[in-house]
Design goal:
With about 450 residues, the protein is α+β, with helices and mostly antiparallel strands. The protein has 8 helices and 29 strands. The radius of gyration is 44 Å and the shape is rod-shaped.
């Protein structure tokens, strides 16, 4: 605090010296001449006249006010009359009033350096710079905007972009494993004890179509049911034993085959074979397991922090390393209810087609989940427009003619180079997307100057 106070005191002294020095130089007097002519000047000086145009600090510090006010120590500001102000020119004021654009009235004149100082009439600052007129209807400086010269804006490559409503798509990356689609698995089993007389499908991995012969089997229970059917019994008993309809039609036609050919109940690949020629099988024994590989599952491990972005129907792009240039599109159909404590990940099921049987079971897959692709459009700004200090986030609103307003915003989802803005900006406003830190530095400088030039800032 003490070092900061010292710096401010030094700056205040420099500004005061600058003002005084300019006052002497303005009249073309050296120090000695000023000392010798002061009395004469005071004696011969005409009486002050004219209206009060503003009030200034009694110590000639660069503090001004349009209303009477006091210094922090209770001394009143000095009233400056029209005849006293060296920059006041009645003819200039009249011409300025006559030359203003039709339909536009000058409200006041503001300090060209952005200091909190205004004048109701044309004047110059202590460096000889003309005060800038502010017209009725123009957006006045409310202390929130920062002015940057247009040439600096062009040199710095300042670019803007309109605030628009967009769909925020956030890619969530995960890894997973290709697995069977459990809904497309079929088990072949007998419902009665039997003996395998001949195997037609005798290799694991063999592809079969529905109706293809798997094996020839002899079953005493099936033969007994056939005899009952021929003697007027019900054919439902054969159906209960799982006998194919084609075999039941043969029995109804008067045939009584002692064995029958068992057909494949589904199309797919034989992934398990647990039967051999001549084997005695019991009711319920699993003989084959057939898997339809035209569709598969990918079980993805999604990080706990990304889980809130995933929902049923989220589109996913799956890439296996064997076909890195041929990704497959799928969608999330289930999110498992448990979390793996060891990895802090949740399992997410993705269903996808398997064209040309490229995907193989247990392949590793790289997955990109397109979170938010089905959401409604949201108000967004480019990610490069956000200045994040860690505790707050701001964007710079372009007001035109080199004026920018820093505005705090509340952010939401991110994705695709854009950020959702929940509060702080409106659709159609222009935000700065390049050279943001330059304008932010100008804004911080303006705030520092305003704090320094406020009465009582230096103590």
């Amino acid at each position: 605090m003490s070092s900061t106070r010292g710096v401010l005191l030094i700056l205040a002294a420099i500004l005061a010296a600058g003002v005084g020095g300019y006052g002497l130089g303005y009249h073309g007097l050296g120090t000695s001449e000023f000392m010798t002519t002061t009395g004469a000047a005071q004696t011969n000086a005409p009486a002050s006249s004219g209206p009060v145009i503003y009030y200034r600090d009694p110590d000639d510090k660069p503090f001004y006010s349009l209303e009477p006010k006091q210094t922090p120590d209770g001394r009143p500001y000095r009233a400056v009359l029209a005849s006293e102000d060296i920059s006041f020119d009645t003819n200039t004021a009249k011409s300025a009033t006559l030359d203003q654009p039709p339909g536009r009235r000058i409200i006041y004149y503001r300090n060209p350096m952005g200091l909190p100082d205004t004048s109701p009439v044309p004047k110059k600052d202590w460096m000889g710079m003309d005060y800038i007129p502010v017209y009725e209807g123009e957006e006045q400086d409310d202390g929130k905007t920062v002015k940057v010269s247009l040439d600096k804006v062009q040199r710095s490559g300042v670019r803007t972009e309109a605030v628009e409503a967009r769909v925020i798509v956030r890619p969530v990356r995960a890894v997973g494993t290709v697995m069977h689609d459990e809904s497309r698995l079929t088990i072949v089993a007998m419902r009665s004890d039997a003996y395998i007389e001949e195997l037609f499908v005798n290799k694991t991995g063999q592809h079969v179509h529905v109706g293809d012969p798997l094996f020839r089997v002899f079953s005493p229970d099936i033969v007994s049911a056939q005899v009952d059917l021929r003697n007027g019994g019900a054919e439902q008993r054969l159906r209960n034993l799982g006998v194919p309809e084609s075999h039941i039609r043969e029995v109804r036609a008067g045939k009584n085959p002692m064995s029958l050919v068992w057909p494949a109940p589904a199309t797919g690949d034989v992934i398990e074979k647990r039967v051999i020629n001549g084997q005695r099988v019991k009711a319920g024994d699993e003989l084959y397991r057939i898997a339809d590989h035209t569709h598969l599952w990918v079980i993805a491990d999604v990080a706990e922090s990304d889980l809130s972005a995933i929902k049923l129907g989220t589109r996913a792009t799956v890439t296996v390393r064997a076909y890195a240039a041929q990704p497959v599109e799928g969608e999330v159909t289930f999110i498992y209810p448990e979390l793996r404590a060891e990895t802090r990940t949740a399992r997410v099921r993705i269903e996808l087609p398997n064209p040309n049987d490229r995907l193989k079971i247990d392949m590793y897959a790289d997955i990109v989940l397109q979170a938010g692709a089905d959401e409604q459009p949201a108000i967004t700004v480019p990610a490069s427009a956000v200045i994040d200090s860690g505790t707050r986030q701001i964007v710079l609103i372009a007001k035109g003619e080199g004026r920018f307003e820093p505005r705090a915003v509340k952010l939401g989802r991110r994705g695709g180079g854009y950020v959702e803005v929940l509060d702080g900006v409106n659709k159609g406003e222009e935000v700065v997307t390049a050279a943001t830190f330059l304008i932010d530095a100008e804004s911080n400088l303006k705030a520092a100057l305003q704090a320094f030039t406020q009465p009582g800032a230096v103590k």
